Amino acid sequence: MAETDGAGASFAELRDPGWDESQLRPYTFPTRQILRLSHTDPRAEMLINNEEPVVLTDTNLVHPALKWDIPYLQENIGNGDFSVYTANNHKFLYYDEKKLSNFEDFVPKSRRIEMKFSEFVDRIHQAEEQGGNERLYLQQTLNDTVGRKIVVDFLGFNWNWINKQQAKRNWGPLTSNLLLIGMEGNVTPAHYDEQQNFFAQIKGHKRCILFPPDQFDCLYPYPVHHPCDRQSQVDFENPDYDKFPNFKNTIGYEAVVGPGDVLYIPMYCWHHIESLLNGGVTITVNFWYKGAPTPKRIEYPLRAHQKVAIMRNIEKMLGEALGDPHEVGPLLNMMIKGRYDHGLS
Q1: pLDDT single digits (tens) 99-112
Q2: Whether the Cβ atoms of residue 172 and residue 289 lie closer than 8 Å to each other
Q3: Is the separation of the CB atoms in 255 and 208 below 8 Å?
Q4: How far apart are CA 82 and CA 78, in angstroms?
Q5: How many CB atoms sit inside 10 A of residue 12's CB?
Q6: Residue 337: CB partners within 8 Å, gap ≥ 6?
Q7: What per-residue confidence (pLDDT) applies to 9?
C-alpha cells in the first residue's frame, strides 16, 4: 500500500485542515498515510487497478448531498422506518442475526431498532444533552421510501464517473448505497467486506484505518459461523497480546476523510472506521459493488485476498459437512497439529 505522494508533499500539506491530531484515538500499532489524489491522477487509476486504497479528493460523486445535514434530512428524508443500532459505548461490533443460533452464549453488544428519522434525531439530541452512555448509529439502505428532494439529490450523484470505474474493472452490479449517520466518537471496529467499496464522506470527518488482506493472521477474525464473522476479535484500545500475539506485527494505513472525499476500500481489505472525537455528527454514503468474476485462468502465486476467500469456503464447507460449526476448529486443529505446524524435513 502506498504511503507517500511521490511528489515530496508532506501529510500535513495533503490533509484536510478541518480537524487536528487531538481528535484521534491513540493506538499501539504504527500507521502510514493513504495517498490523497485527484481522480484524474494516473496514480489513482493504478492504485484502484491494483486493489489498493486511495482517497480521491475531487470526484464530485456525492456533490448534491454535501448540503445534507440533520435539519435538511429531517425535513426531506421521508417518514419511513430506519435501521438504527444502539450501544452502551462507542464501539459498534455488528453481528449477523441469522447466525445467533450457532453461538447461544453470544451476547450482542449492540442492538438494531427500527425507528422514524425524527425519533433518531430526538434520541441523539437527548444523548448529547444528558451525557448518558447511549450511543446511536443509523445504517439504512437508500431506497424508494425517501422523500422527493433526497431522490433528486441521489439522481444528481456523479453516476457517470462511478459507472466507468465499475465497467473498467468488470465489477459486478451495485448492491446497495448505505446511508451512515453516527455520533461523534462512534467506532466501527476492524472488519472486512466481500465487496468493492467507494466510501463517500458527506458531513464531518472520519478516520479510516485499513489493513491489507495479508494481515489476516494478525487481526484474528471470528470464525465464519460466528455472528461477528469478518470482524477482528482484537480490542484495538486494549489489545490482549497473550491471546492475540500476532497483533504486535500489525501495520495500519490510514486517512481522515472529510466532506467530498471518496475513499476506495478494496474487497477483503480490513477497515476500522471512527468518527472523530469532538467532531459532531458524521454522514457517509457507501457504494458497494460485487467483485469481478473469478478469472478462467488462475495466476499463481495466489494473492492474499484469494487465500482469504479459500479459507472462508473451507470453513463453510466443513461446517455444512460436520453439521455443527463448533466442530470445525477442532477438526482443522487435528489436521494441522504436529503435521503442518513445524518445519518438515
Answers
A1: 999 999 999 999 99
A2: yes
A3: yes
A4: 10
A5: 7
A6: none
A7: 43
